[in-house]
Amino acid sequence: MMLFSLLSMGMKCVEQPPVDNRLKIVNYSEKRISVSYSAIYPDTSLAENYEKYECLVLLANSTSNFEEYCSWEEVYQQSVSDTIMFFIFDNNIVKTIPWDTIRKNYMILERYDLTYEDLVKMNWTIEYPTKE
User: Fold this and answer.
1) Which of 54, 55, 65 is closest to 26 using CA atoms?
2) How many domains does the chain have?
3) Dist. CA 109–CA 77, nearest whole Å
4) Is the peptide bond before 129 cis (omega within 30 degrees of 0)?
5) pLDDT tens digits, the chain, 132 residues: what are they?
6) Is the peptide bond before 42 cis (omega within 30 degrees of 0)?
7) Could you tell me the residue range of the domain that residue 26 belongs to?
8) Does residue 5 come out as left (phi exceeding 0), alpha (psi in the -120 to 50 range) or beta?
9) pTM for the complete prediction?
10) Most buried residue, 35, 47, 86, 112, by most Cβ within 10 Å?
11) Cβ–Cβ < 8 Å for 47, 8
């Protein structure tokens, strides 16, 4: 259970390296979104407490960098598998609906299951919704 808690809330660095902010999130939607990640794939369930997620909130039609206090290489090394899940939530829902309801009904807008190689191929950019 402790392992689940640690891995579902973002990685903790042993040292304090510079912030790794190369991951860019692009929100093409008209909604304010919250973006978080989990390193316990293939378990796709949401954490018991929303506070366990490190989140980035983006305004509608905006772009921001996801700042991680570890390198993304270290995050992937510490993950359960070679895949990290990035969750996109409607920020309004997160702020107005109890987390246990969100969790039970899996109220996410999108989930991206990405390997390190996927992010490199995507030029460290996650787009929501995905542009075809």
Assistant:
1) 65
2) 1
3) 27
4) yes
5) 333 333 444 555 555 557 999 999 999 999 999 999 999 999 999 988 877 677 899 999 999 999 998 899 999 999 999 999 999 999 999 999 999 999 999 999 999 999 999 999 999 999 999 986
6) yes
7) 2-128
8) alpha
9) 0.85
10) 35
11) yes
